[in-house]
């Protein structure tokens, strides 16, 4: 017959909860870093495009093409390139965040799996103890 208290369950649960807390803190740290790095990349890209815009525009106006269709197409292409770059940064950030969210969900599921396993083991022990007690029923005179 087993005892009604198994300290290993408490240790298993505590270890699982520590792993979960570590994973949660790591997730929060990584999300914060990704957000910061993404913002830095966007700021840097905008700075580079702003700095590159004036020399391009000046090059066209020096040649007398400041109002030409060629100038408008070049500026439109320049703006489109900038937008694609910003979209690439945003897309990469979204993909990294999605990967982190998946890891976070897996971490939460791992904790739940451990808790479920402990609950099943406890239930099996209770059932085994009840069965053992029930086998003594004829000797005790107690009937249910």
What can you tell me about this protein's structure?
With 144 residues, the chain is mostly helical. It has one domain (7-132). The chain is built from 3 helices and no strands. The protein has helices spanning 7-62, 69-135, 137-140. Helix 1 (7-62) runs antiparallel to helix 2. The model has no long low-confidence stretch (mean pLDDT 90).
Q: Give the beta-strand count.
A: 0
The chain-level structural class is mainly alpha
H-E order: HHH
- Envelope shape: rod-shaped
Cα radius of gyration in angstroms? 32 Å
Number of helices: 3
Q: Any low-confidence stretches, pLDDT <50, length ≥5?
A: none
Biggest sheet overview: none
Return the average pLDDT rounded to an integer: 90
Percentage of helical residues? over 70%
How many discrete structural domains? 1
Strand content: under 5%
Task: Give a short summary of the structure.
The chain has one domain. It has three helices and no strands. The relative contact order is 0.13.
Give the arrangement of secondary structure elements:
Elements lengths: L6 H56 L6 H67 L1 H4 L4
Helix pairs in contact: 1-2
Key descriptive features of the protein:
mainly alpha; 88% helix
């Amino acid at each position: 017959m087993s005892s009604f208290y198994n300290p290993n369950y408490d240790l298993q649960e505590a270890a699982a909860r520590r792993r979960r807390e570590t994973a949660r803190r790591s997730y929060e740290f990584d999300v914060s870093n990704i957000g910061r790095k993404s913002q830095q990349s966007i700021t840097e890209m905008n700075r580079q495009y702003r700095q590159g815009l004036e020399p391009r525009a000046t090059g066209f106006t020096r040649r007398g093409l400041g109002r030409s269709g060629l100038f408008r197409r070049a500026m439109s292409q320049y703006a489109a390139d900038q937008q694609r770059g910003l979209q690439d940064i945003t897309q990469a950030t979204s993909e990294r965040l999605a990967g982190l969210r998946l890891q976070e969900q897996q971490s939460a599921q791992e904790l739940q799996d451990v808790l479920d396993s402990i609950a099943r083991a406890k239930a099996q022990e209770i059932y085994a103890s009840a069965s053992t007690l029930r086998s003594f029923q004829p000797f005790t005179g107690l009937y249910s």
